[in-house]
Design goal:
Layout lengths: L3 E6 L8 H11 L7 E9 L7 E3 L3 H11 L3 E6 L5 H15 L8 E4 L4 H5 L2 H17 L4 E6 H7 L9 E5 L13 E5 L14 E5 L3 H8 L30 H10 L17 H13 L12
């Protein structure tokens, strides 16, 4: 898919004019996409034992995104100092955001707090996985936000391979150092969104997250139905397969189909030389069409 550009915001941006932002996000995406906004849910208790302090603009931002059709995700900042603390915070995030639909992941934001700088890669990784596990259990698409340096030097990156990553790196180009789904590439409003001056985080998404959420029934979207039976009182439909047949029979069947057009064709040829058959085989392979042959009898 093509890149989709968006922003991430918190109470630091104040009371956002979402009508303007919605129009601006569509503009920077060439008019073909509504873009996205990742909203801060809040931060965990500074004492490190878990618990969410909700962002003062969260509910207003959710309402604005829903009203003006801006696809949204969530992030929450980590002060948690244990796996249990992270789980407690994540549980409270789930309660805070329930009842809404989110087209982008729910991100656990881990940065350079003194504890996280000193505790070691293993502890940081355990804390992250604990929070994300709670989110997944609750039916959310869980992911993690860190800077490129933090991912590489303060986590066991391979142990986080099962989770998508939102990577912050204010560099001219992205790299393959961290396999990310979202890249935060600017904190200086590189997209030029009206109303924020030179202070706004800008992001680019490489993944069609909205399609994933809908297809898998995550982040508040209903689970896809597994019932393949015709709906009650609906007329059952069938998909006939007929053949092999001659060209004449094919024409007769097509005429009897009353306007319905076959969705696929299987062609059987009379006996031919191996050289002639090879030409057809190569053509079929070039078109990614199935090919099979058998020796003619007699």
């Amino acid at each position: 898919m093509s890149k989709i550009y968006g922003i991430d915001v918190s109470h630091h941006q104040g009371a956002i004019n979402w009508a303007t932002v919605a129009a601006e996000l569509r503009r920077v995406n060439g008019g073909t996409s509504p873009g996205f906004a990742i909203l801060r849910a809040g931060y965990s208790a500074r004492h490190g034992k878990g618990g969410l302090y909700m962002d003062g603009q969260l509910l207003r931002n959710i309402k604005g995104c829903e009203q003006y059709g801006v696809p949204m995700g969530i992030y929450f900042y980590c002060y948690d100092q244990s796996a249990d603390a992270a789980a407690t915070t994540a549980e409270q995030v789930v309660k805070a955001i329930s009842g809404h639909k989110f087209d982008y992941p729910i991100y656990y934001d881990v940065e350079y707090e003194p504890f996280n700088k000193a505790c070691g890669k293993a502890t940081n990784t355990t804390i992250i996985k604990s929070a994300l596990g709670v989110l997944e259990q609750a039916g959310y698409y869980a992911a993690v936000y860190c800077s490129r340096d933090f991912f590489l030097n303060y986590t066991n990156l391979s142990a986080l391979s099962g989770f998508d990553k939102w990577e912050a790196a204010y560099t001219a180009t992205d790299t393959d150092a961290v396999q990310n789904g979202l890249w935060q590439y600017s904190s200086r409003n590189a997209l030029g969104i009206k109303g924020f001056g030179a202070s706004l985080d800008c992001d680019v998404s490489y993944v069609n997250y909205p399609a994933i959420m809908r297809a898998k029934g995550l982040n508040g979207y209903p689970k896809p139905s597994t019932d393949t039976k015709p709906a009650e009182n609906a007329t059952p439909l069938q998909c006939p397969t007929i053949g092999p047949m001659s060209k004449g029979d094919f024409d007769a069947i097509l005429a009897a189909a009353n306007g319905s057009t076959p969705t696929a064709y299987t062609v059987t040829f009379p006996p031919m030389t191996t050289a002639a058959a090879s030409v057809l085989q190569q053509k079929a392979h070039g078109l990614s069409v199935g090919y099979s042959s058998a020796w003619a009898e007699g």
